[in-house]
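R.M. (postdoc): so does anyone remember the format we settled on? I'll just put the structure tokens first.
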């Protein structure tokens, strides 16, 4: 079980602090701690939340069966199609959801992660947990249900990311430095919050999972080339274990990219040829 206690004044955090935090942990605490009481958001934020709520209605609602699970939870690895499946909106906030959150933290710590989304443990619902410190009993444990992005910062930064669904694979990904989000906590209470630096990075990585987006989808081709063989090895591992063909192949993506680039090059050549022909005609 996750080694945490619930703090009701800050319902979307599950926290337990060690008596003495070194400077790094204090810095993380400042980044992601909420005020003692959640104040009503300003009018413009409430208007954004209403728009997000209208968008939410389009999502398919998760049934109790969608939230059922068996212990122990296991990490789903690429290229399992679960990672690309649509994730349903949670509307039932009960003890089963709290139990699922605890189990997700438990498997996250056991696998040395700092963030985990529900589809990564085979449950296609809009739920994520994370702790940027990555140590049970230290830092802040954050739970976000049905999260939405309100605003991304214009400033973007590159960071070397890993993913529990891609064991031992790390590569650079560029993302916005900070993000404002709208979400619900494990009790169903809605709130708006802003993350920056590492918590913002972790949130965006896990939020991508809830959209069926994987971290290599956001890599440049040069960066992707550096891990292509490792992705192919995971594809082969899936085929050997399941006896089924891989639902996606990185080599196919490479072929599509090359075809698209060739098509663009061809269109550019045609435009240039057309321009030259026009000049010749005018002369």
């Amino acid at each position: 079980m996750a080694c945490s206690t619930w703090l009701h004044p800050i319902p979307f955090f599950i926290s337990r602090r060690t008596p003495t935090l070194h400077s790094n942990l204090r810095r993380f605490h400042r980044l992601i701690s909420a005020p003692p009481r959640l104040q009503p958001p300003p009018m413009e934020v409430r208007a954004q939340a209403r728009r997000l709520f209208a968008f939410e209605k389009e999502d398919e609602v998760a049934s109790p069966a969608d939230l059922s699970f068996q212990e122990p939870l296991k990490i789903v690895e690429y290229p399992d199609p679960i990672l690309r499946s649509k994730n349903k909106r949670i509307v039932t906030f009960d003890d089963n959801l709290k139990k699922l959150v605890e189990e997700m933290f438990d498997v996250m710590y056991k696998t040395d992660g700092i963030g985990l989304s529900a589809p990564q443990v085979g449950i296609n619902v809009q739920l994520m947990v994370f702790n940027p410190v990555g140590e049970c009993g230290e830092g802040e444990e954050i739970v976000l249900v049905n999260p939405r992005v309100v605003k991304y910062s214009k400033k973007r930064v590159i960071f070397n990311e890993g993913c529990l669904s891609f064991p031992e694979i790390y590569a650079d990904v560029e993302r916005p430095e900070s993000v404002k989000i709208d979400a619900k906590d494990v009790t169903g209470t809605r709130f708006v919050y802003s993350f920056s630096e590492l918590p913002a990075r972790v949130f965006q990585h896990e939020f991508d999972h809830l959209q069926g987006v994987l971290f290599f989808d956001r890599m440049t081709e040069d960066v992707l080339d550096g891990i292509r063989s490792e992705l192919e090895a995971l594809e082969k591992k899936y085929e050997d274990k399941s006896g089924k063909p891989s639902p996606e192949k990185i080599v196919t993506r490479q072929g599509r990219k090359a075809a698209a680039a060739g098509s663009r090059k061809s269109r550019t050549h045609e435009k240039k040829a057309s321009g030259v022909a026009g000049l010749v005609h005018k002369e």
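R.M.: ...and that's the designed sequence above, right after the tokens. Also worth knowing: Helices lie at 23-32, 43-56, 95-110, 197-210, 221-242, 250-282. The CA atoms of residues 169 and 230 lie 7 Å apart.
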